[in-house]
Design goal:
The protein is of the alpha+beta class. The protein has two domains: about 100 residues; about 55 residues, Head domain of nucleotide exchange factor GrpE (Nucleotide Exchange Factor Grpe, Chain A, domain 2), CATH 2.30.22.10. It is about 55% helix and about 20% strand. It is built from three helices and six strands, in the order H-H-H-E-E-E-E-E-E. The protein has a three-stranded antiparallel sheet. Strands 2-6-3 form a three-stranded mixed sheet, with no helix packed on it.
Amino acid sequence: MTDEQVQQHQETEHAEQQQPEPEVQDDRLLRLAADFENYKKRAARERQEYVALANERLIAELIPILDDLERALSAAEDHQEAQLEEGVRLVHRSLAGLLERHGVTPIETDGKFDPHVHEALLSQPSEAEEGAVIDVVQKGYRLGERIVRPARVVVAAPPQEEPAGDA
């Protein structure tokens, strides 16, 4: 053998020694796959725990509002109209405050109709500018930038022209 052949033979043996055996490589791949599956299960479990925690917090804040509503209903049974109205207003303020603290805001309905945040239920002749929102049937809400429920509105149509009478 020449020096060159000896050197190639040594390099080949050295490269073979560095390559892990197929069984070892398969074992590593199986362990890696198992670790990844465990990670996916752990991440899914943690996500469920976060959702449960968020729901628990929201429910804990809704319970006092439910208590207020029950007090208002018991006042209605006793025919105490002034207390009933006050109780319902208290419940409304509490619930609106809770929603606001969690990032829920009402959708503005002043001005022109916006199809991204408004749902037109009806177009009605009006003296207002064509396309203006003239009545709100149901308030809309957004959570951050997402629309939770569009505002259901009545939109102004051009005024109807009265038919010309024959004279």
